[in-house]
Specification:
Layout: E1 8-10, E2 13-15, E3 19-21, H1 41-52, E4 57-64, H2 81-96, E5 100-106, E6 134-135, E7 149-150, H3 153-172, E8 177-182, H4 187-192, H5 207-210, H6 212-224, E9 231-236, H7 248-260, E10 265-269, H8 287-297, E11 301-304, H9 310-318, E12 324-327, H10 329-333, H11 337-345
Parallel strand pairs: 3-4, 3-12, 4-5, 5-8, 6-7, 8-9, 9-10, 10-11, 11-12
Antiparallel strand pairs: 1-2
Length: 359
């Protein structure tokens, strides 16, 4: 049997295959008013199509735990009960298709309050729909970006609870996997890296101090997330900086800590914390980072990054480099990628009865 189409179980959750959907922002929610951050018909249709296409696990895009944690004003949120209730339509449909519904909870930190990518992605000021970003240190992400407000000790102490509240709402909304977003230069990743964290208190300086906030968030989420359900963490394995950045060695060291704090799987990406770095992108270019974590810590991992071909994905799993693959842009191009891959590799996925003529 194809490794890609073997079921995978984490805690009590059985995922029907190893073809998983990576979180990808749609920037399609209302920005203000009572429907701010609420999933729309677009979100339902978007995720429903990938579930009907056989995807085993869908991680809903970065969903902010506080209004000021959105990447753009049009991001999803889960800081109130109205938002949580609106997600139930999506999770119910995904489960009906045999897909496990997951959600990524997030705070964008200094990279918050930007425009939609297709309108330029530039910072959005307080004179429009935006707000003042916050971060571990008053270091802007790039030229033309605002200097973020440095979080106070009291503000830091409040945030793990906001992640926990978001996880509690995610459970009420019907999600079975929650992923903490610690990658791509957003708030948690900003704390991890010395490139963006210049603090001199208990949250900056040493490796132990820089990882403190991330572990406090994980502990807060794990405390409210049922023991029978899995917790993921997404990480950038490296900043791709030659010096003064987060490294692959740091990732391996941190992965062991995450495992001890109740994380069940590491979603391994890279980059995003520094602009204009040289990234040797190519097919599967991030897979070696995932493989190293898996081999050196025994923490399950999912690999991501230019995985587009069924044979390529199969090889990643067959070689023991990852426990699952996360597809991003390829699933935007091909919502039924899993079904096509199953035909090519001799595997099987659930096909809706309405699509029986396509088998």
């Amino acid at each position: 049997m194809s490794a890609l189409f073997e079921p995978y179980t984490l805690r009590s959750v059985r995922i029907p295959n190893r073809v998983w959907m990576a979180p990808m922002c749609q920037y399609s929610a209302e920005a203000t008013g009572p429907d701010a951050g609420v999933p729309t018909d677009w979100h339902f249709a978007h995720y429903a199509a990938r579930a009907a296409g056989g995807t085993g696990l869908i991680l809903v895009e970065a969903t902010s735990v506080v209004p000021e944690g959105r990447i753009s004003p049009h991001d999803l949120g889960i800081w109130n009960d109205t938002q949580a209730a609106a997600f139930r339509r999506i999770t119910r449909f995904l489960k009906d298709q045999g897909t496990v519904p997951g959600i990524q909870i997030a705070h964008a930190g200094r990279k918050a309050s930007t425009d939609r990518p297709w309108t330029g992605g530039a910072p959005v000021g307080t004179d429009a729909l935006g707000w003042q970003p916050v971060a571990p240190s008053p270091v802007p992400f790039d030229e033309g970006h605002p200097v973020p407000d440095e979080l106070t000790a009291d503000q830091i102490a409040e945030l793990p609870g906001r992640f926990a509240e978001a996880a509690r709402r995610a459970l009420e909304a019907g999600f079975e996997v929650v992923e903490v977003h610690g990658a791509h230069g957003y708030l948690i990743g900003e704390f991890l890296s010395p490139h963006s964290n210049r603090r001199t208190d208990a949250y900056g300086g040493s490796f132990g101090n820089r990882t403190r906030f991330a572990l406090e968030v994980v502990d807060a989420v794990r405390a409210v997330w049922p023991q029978e359900l899995p917790l993921f963490f997404r990480i950038s394995a490296t900043d791709w900086l030659e010096e003064n950045g987060w490294t692959a060695d740091d990732t391996v060291r941190f992965a062991a800590l995450l495992r001890d704090h109740g994380v069940d799987l590491l979603d391994v990406s890279s980059g995003g914390n520094a602009p204009r770095v040289r990234i040797p992108a190519g097919p599967g270019y991030q897979v070696p980072f995932a493989a190293r974590v898996r081999n050196e810590t025994e923490l399950p991992v999912a690999a991501v990054g230019l995985i587009t071909d069924p044979a390529q994905a199969e090889k990643v799993l067959a070689n023991g480099e990852a426990d699952a693959v996360l597809l991003g842009r390829e699933l935007l191009r091909s919502p039924s990628w899993a079904r096509s891959a199953a035909r090519e590799l001799g595997g099987a996925v659930r096909t809706p009865e309405q699509y029986h003529r396509s088998v």
